[in-house]
Each structure stands twice: as C-alpha cells, then as structure tokens.
C-alpha cells in the first residue's frame, strides 16, 4: 500500500471526478489512479489500526481474561467459567463500589448541569469583557484531577480541615467528610463539579447563542417575563445539547478513578470502602490483589452497565429528536 | 505553492462561517439598541463564580507558602501568603520523587501526543471530509461511535500487551495508545468539511499535485485554526492524565501527576510540601492558559455547536 505513495510521479489526474482520467494513459496515470483510490484508506488507517489494537481488542479480550484464573505475575491459569463473576457478584465490596459510583455520579452531574445552565444564561447576557468571564470559568479545567484531589482532600479534611473549621466557627457540628458515606461522596463530587462545570457552561452557552433571537422577540411581544422565556424557549431549545452533555458525562463519570483514589493517602477508597468506585475496585483486584481474572470480570460488568445506560440514553435521544423534527415540520407548515 | 490564507478559505466556506458572521453582526447591532447591558447583580454573580473557580488554586498557593505547623494550627489559612514558598519548592525538587524526571516525561508525552494526534486526525479528517471512497459514511459513523466506547475498561489486556512488549515503566506505553483519537478525527472532519473548498483541492490536483501533496499544501494550512485547538486540548488531557500512566509507569519512571501523589508520604503528610508540588504542576498549564485560553474557550464553543 505504501509503495503507491510516490507523490513525485503521480500523474495529473483531476481528483475525485474520474471522468477526465481517460485523457492520458501510462504508468504515471496508473499510479495517479491508485493514489486517488488508496490514499483515503491510507489516511484513515492510523486511527482504525490503533483503535483495534489498543481499544477494541483489549476491551473484548477482557471477557476472555475474566473466565480464567489469571495472576498478575504468573499469568494465564485454568479456564474457570463464570467463577470470577460468581465471586464478584457475591462480593459485598463490589456492590458497595457500584453504589458509590452511581451516588458520586449523580451528585456530580445533576448539580453541575443546573449550575452550568444558570452560569451560561448569565454569560449569555450582553456583558462587558465577555472573553474574560468565559476564560475565568474555564480555569479549573486545566488543573489536573490529581491536583484537585489533593487540594480538596485538605479542604475537606476531617480533622483540622478548612471546611470543618469554618463549620466550627459558625457553631455547627463538624462533618466526617472522609469517614462517612454521603459526605465523602459530596466531597468527591464537588471536585468533579469544580473541574467540569465551567467546561459544560461554555458548551451550553454556545448552544444558547445559536438559538434564533426572533424567538425571544416574539416572546417579549407576547409579554413573557425573563424567567418564562428561559423555561419556555431556552431550555427546550437546549435539549439536544444537554443530552450530549449528559451522555458524555455519563460515560466519563461512571469510570471515575483519580479523585477517590487520591482523596486520602492510602488510595483504598476509605477505611470501609465508603468511597471506593468500580474503577478503583478494578485496580485493587488486579494490581493490589494480583487477580486479573476478577478485575476483568468487574471491568466487563461495568462495561455492560455503561452499555445499557448508553442504549437507554440513545432511545430517549431518538424520541426527543423525532419529537423535535415533528415540531419543526409543524412550524414550517405554519410559516408556509 | 503558497498556502491560501485562512480568511480566503472562510470566504469560500459559505454556510458555517457566514452564519457565525451574521450572528456576530446581529449581536453587535442589537447590543446597542434592544439588548441592554446587564445590571451589577449579574457581575456580582459572575465574580462569585470566578472566586469559586480561583479559590482552590489560591488555597494551594497559600498552603504551599506556609509550614506544616502553621497548617495544623490554622486550618483556615490567612489570605496573605506566608514566606516559605521557595523553601517548600526546594524541598519538592530535592525529594526522592524524581521531580525533574517526571517533568521531562510529562513534557515528552504531551508534546509527542499532541503533534501526532493533530497530524493523524487532520489526515483522516481530510479523507473523511473531502475525498470520496467506498464505505466512507459507515466508517465515519464507526469513528463517532467509538468516542462513546469506555476503552479504559480494557486496562487489563492493555497491560498484558505492554508486558509482552516489555514496555512496562516506559513512556512509549503511554504515548502509543494516545497517538490518534476518535474525537480528533471527528473534530477535524467537521472543520474541514466547511473550511476547505473543493475548488482549492481540484486546483491542486489539476496542477499535478498528488494526494499527499494536496494534503500537505492545501488541507493542512487550511486546518490550522482547528488543529491548534485540537493540539491544545490534547496537551491538557495528556498533562492531566493519571489512570493509565499510574498503572503502567508506576513510581520508578513517573509523569507529573503520578509523582505528585508520591509526595503524600506514608507516615506523615506534610501539606505544605504536597501543595508546593501541586503549585509546580499547575503553573505550566496556567501559563499555557494565559496564552491560549481564548482558543480553548473558542474550541469548546465551536465543538459544542457542531457536535
């Protein structure tokens, strides 16, 4: 394939049309035709080769590893059928990690989208120094999750932590941000929110600015208030973008690893696994306990969970999309 | 052959560019008339939002400039930094985490990955956006679908592959899997579709340029704005990446985030030391942000409208 890539000798073909190709016949002509035919495949091949080797194959091979005894050092052992799955599904820690993952995910995605919506609406106003504000909300995005986690670990420290000290000063009881289940989830979710809210704000802001302004003008004429405009025009028009944001944050959010891992210095997701996530558990089984079989079983189960959620997402999206196009058709008819 | 200016391409580009230009004009006119400047409440809210985005970073700086004792005694740091920043930074540099090695690794990985992602994504984007070939549609759908595949979950077999290659603890184990991304391919396809007119490609082909020459002299220059953004995003992602480098490199040959975690120590956690490390790791990206933050903002907003 690469041998056809001899640019210097390529003939003067006209490109994709192919109708002028018959004017001259010869060696260079032939090379040129190969150039046109094969180049596209050559250009897209790096992605596909890499994806197959480091993306798809490992993911599928995880299923194979999961039905074997497989030690980190000793390597592949006997085939054990579904034994690893049986063990995982009966492991209390596994279910705890699933609970933690979903809890942290919900605590980070729901408030995040609401805050991002509000911030985007504010930024959508006719501000002075627009770029400054937009850049300002994006600053946390360039801070590594590891750094965020170390910073928030201290802010939320149980003893002599900044937030607990503020609570004490206000005469309130301190909270076990590390020790207790829900508080630790809130602390970890706040790290995710810190890093990603600004990013999602800008995505929603872009979508807001694409909403035709005449919709608002019509609403103003109809006497709609600002708030009414927001709920009756902005939110419905943002639906596709919000679904996009939700889907991407679902896929990323369910694989969360860094923040809970670095929330304390042991990295075991808390003394009682109170903030151990599924991906943390995969690491623990595979690299701490050296049991690749069980780690793979957990990975494969999480993959199936994400797949199911993605399919549900897709179905909802489809329905909303078809609703919308139906709505648009109606509108067009009315206009005509 | 000289590269056509970006402005010229955007002239040709039609729809996308025209629409955004029109929108800008619209806003400009409405700004002076119907759309009033917001009141101070808006600015107060935004200032609050910015304070929340900045405080954790400033907090890290405050702790980095104090001592372990101070931090234990005053859990709420005073807003005026102490005088121990240089001393703490020195301790980070002299600690056994291999700071400079980590910086070197992080820089190499981020630079190589960014350049490679930009090159291969533009190449594939050029093919998908402007060349005709059998299977183009389905293959592009496949690329888009892969952005939703949680490849991180294939970590066990990927580790086994690296073990086979004897790459454990070596930075190529981090570089190679990131050489090109589905997001990058999709991003460049979207951009080149609207920014690169067929006329330019045809003209190059009529002049006798081969495909690769056409790519190099026509498509690549035209892709520059989007390629810059893609490079920036890839750089940030690579610099902040933890999971895979942590697993495959370990503490012997770490990247910066992996090394940072080592500062926590096992017995006694000295937060002034840890935060000095945090500050050191954040500074390079903050500087990048000051130079190129505008482009990051524009990139997110453009990607959002298209995606």
From TrEMBL, chain A:
Its main location: membrane. It is found in: Cell membrane. PANTHER family: ABC TRANSPORTER PERMEASE PROTEIN, INNER MEMBRANE ABC TRANSPORTER PERMEASE PROTEIN YCJO. InterPro entries: ABC_transporter_permease (IPR051393), MetI-like (IPR000515), MetI-like_sf (IPR035906). Belongs to the binding-protein-dependent transport system permease family. Residues 1-22 are annotated as: Disordered. The chain crosses the membrane at residues 41-64, 102-123, 135-157, 237-257, 297-316. It is a multi-pass membrane protein. The keyword Disulfide bond does not apply. It comes from Cellulomonas edaphi. This is Sugar ABC transporter permease. Gene3D superfamilies: MetI-like (1.10.3720.10). Residues 98-313 form the ABC transmembrane type-1 domain. Keywords: Cell membrane, Membrane, Transmembrane, Transmembrane helix, Transport.
UniProtKB/TrEMBL annotation, chain B:
Gene3D superfamilies: MetI-like (1.10.3720.10). InterPro entries: MetI-like, MetI-like_sf. It is a multi-pass membrane protein. The chain crosses the membrane at residues 40-61, 107-127, 139-161, 167-188, 272-292. It is found in: Cell membrane. Pfam families: BPD_transp_1 (PF00528). Residues 103-292 form the ABC transmembrane type-1 domain. The keyword Transmembrane applies. Its main location: membrane. The keyword Heme does not apply. Coiled coil: none annotated. Keywords: Cell membrane, Membrane, Transmembrane, Transmembrane helix, Transport. Belongs to the binding-protein-dependent transport system permease family. This is Carbohydrate ABC transporter permease. It comes from Cellulomonas edaphi.
